[in-house]
Give the backbone structure.
Amino acid sequence: MKKLRKVMGVAVALSSLLTCSSQILCALKKCSISKVLYEFNEANGELRITGVKNSKIIASSEYARSLGFVACEHKSYPGKKFFTDIKRVIINDGISEIGEAAFRGLASLERVVIPDSVTKIRRNAFSDCISLKGLVVPGSVEKLGRSACSGCINLKTVDMCGISTVIDRYAFQGCINLKNVTLPSRIKTIDIGVFSGCNSLERIKIPGFVRIICSNAFACCKRLKNVTFEIPFVTTVIEGLKSSSAVSNYLRMCYQDFSSADLNKIDAMKSSSEIFSYIEGHGKILSDVDLKVIETLKSPSAVSDYLNFLGEVEPSLSIQTSAFTDCPNLKVIYVPGYAEVDNNAFGKSGTRVVYGDELRHGSETVVKFL
């Protein structure tokens, strides 16, 4: 009898294990398209994407069909089709491009993990992801495409870790709950309509390297009330810097890149005069990688020679027509004295524009514009 009970117990346990294994197998859906593997776990709603080096994620409408998803109409968006299965996306290292409309219309997507291997996020990549709450764009991303996150109505935080990521027009248009944005530190253009209709955005810090704020960039940001311009570093500021690495941070902003071959040659050079001669002979100026060389310059005279070679960089800023139109809470904006502001930049917002070299920003410390 005891042996019989023991055998029955083992049988029950084995049966349970087989059932569990069967459920796990049934919970996983897979498809492979253009050397990219899409694995969806029905149990937790996670989509894991794995690809070979330099591979690309295709449009959601293509891989969703292969995974057996069915598009359905959302009650709040009549006429639009959404996929509701995917809640989380994990992109494994190796993928270099998030293609056009890669996650468009994933209505239940709340979180996405983007690896440093990704360099491009194409147009409409995350548009209409109406449950997405936060997005971290890694520093490896060179460009965020047109309308990349438009219509993400629950998106609240965006952190762009890159120092010079290009943000294409309408990238965050209609993100009505967007409150916190960290812009790339060396972005030069805030393109047309990038933040238009972001009704919850209350403040924005414009990096010092921005040269153009295009039309409708912040149009209809109803709650926007604080716009701060960072101070661009120019030669007069550099005079107060104590280290060559601090100088290098200044110089990173606006010089054209050399080729890899050029950079290797420059890295091997021993003196600043040799570097300058090489640069002059090629009609170019130092790039980010080249600037590592300046960190080896130990003496003030060597740094001074470098600055004299580059010459003074004149800052500039253009705020174009309707850039801040229909921003009723933006009562006053303090802009650098060198800024060129279009007569219709603020539309009928009634914003008072204050220019100057030394101004106080509300309760903040004195901001000095150069």
